[in-house]
Amino acid sequence: MKGKRVVVIDIAGLGMQHFEDTAALPRLSSLVRRGRLLRMKPVFPAVTLPVQASLTTGLFPDRHGVVANGFYFREDHRIAFWEQAAALVGGERIWERLKRKSPSLKTASLFLQNTLYASCDAVITPKPLHTGKGMVQWCYSKPPGLYEEICEKRGEFDLLHYWGPLASIESSRWIAGASLEVMDRIRPDLLFVYLPHLDYCLQRHGPGSPAVHEELARVDAEAGRIIDGIGERGLSGETVFIVLSEYAFSAVTGDIPLNRIFRENGLFAVRTIAGREYPDFELTPAFAMVDHQVAHVYCKPGHLSAVRNILERTDGVDHILQGEGKKEYRIGHQRSGDLVAVSARDRWFSYYWWEERVREPDFAGQVDIHRKPGYDPLELFIERGEHGTFRVPQDTGLIKGSHGYPPLGEEDMIPLLLSGEGTEALGLPDALCIADIPSIIEEILFPGAQEDR
């Protein structure tokens, strides 16, 4: 293949089984007929940041160091979720690797995580400004002014549609449109586009819900806008589309509140401030940084055995990884917990440690993705609180779908769709993994090139 460009469309939550619903996926089904639909493994943990870091480096979490959607910074006893800096990802990203081969090659990334200040030629990623008057919705972009130029044509990107109780197809629609604006302005040889919409539906309704059909059709239409837009620009013949997902969803029926369990056993310490209970990460014997179906458990010296015993007795915990177990699952990095717990497929981990809502920390009832010491899927819902206000509920039965489980069986496989001239001739590994994607991209753009990793 010569003179190719690659467009990677990352549709979070898209499953192999969804391609059986061809009525809901007319545009993606048309790509299947002209290409190859394959099964591949995600990496563990099968959650957004680790998978996207592997997608863009070709490395596993034990090497790139992104072990969850959150980071525990041991030096200042702080947990932060959804940190955006590109520098948090260890190893060389695919756009850096390609630039070494061809400095004139252009790359772009739209809404992938950990791309703030990335060395792509074009980047757009949410970076709201928090001011004394509230939040200013804004996206960081490179080159400077790119986001503002796109806003003049398409309006501002609305973060309320990107996450929270109002999350909807509107965010993916804006991103799809912006990808074509970037194609017009930058003409990248490699373009990553992240479409998050399906993920919302699967958490709210579960993978087996009839509502999935309609949501599939919506996200297919946005992927189709990108595909058709490439054609309208006369670029179809030179474009290879790579459509993939990040993880498979499981239907879930309830949570496991690990920190509450640790507290009941005298292993989780809090500080009460203005009547509210906050975790004492400095002095607590143990705590869990939870993330969908995975929990990183950090322990003070002398408490590891007791904590492991508690996890072994906890209903709904399938795996407890330590030492060799972390190495086997490719998560043996210094950022990982001393223990890594995996819930059963039909469960997920909540971050709660309080018993009464009157004692909850101030951020618990809010959509506050950065300060919560655990991923909170209930931010997709809202309920009426006291005095006519609204708050995030804590009815964990509202969550119908989750992910993160290690890729141990066919139900954990995710789709890889390759479509474009010459894709049938690509030599692919027998056991595909999402970490193979950078090498596949390199082979498309530089046929026959081999480079030691």
UniProtKB/TrEMBL annotation:
InterPro entries: Alkaline_phosphatase_core_sf, Phosphodiest/P_Trfase. One of its GO terms (molecular function) is hydrolase activity. Coiled coil: none annotated. SUPFAM superfamilies: Alkaline phosphatase-like (SSF53649). Signal peptide: none annotated. PANTHER family: BIS(5'-ADENOSYL)-TRIPHOSPHATASE, ECTONUCLEOTIDE PYROPHOSPHATASE/PHOSPHODIESTERASE. This is Alkaline phosphatase family protein. It comes from Candidatus Nitrobium versatile.
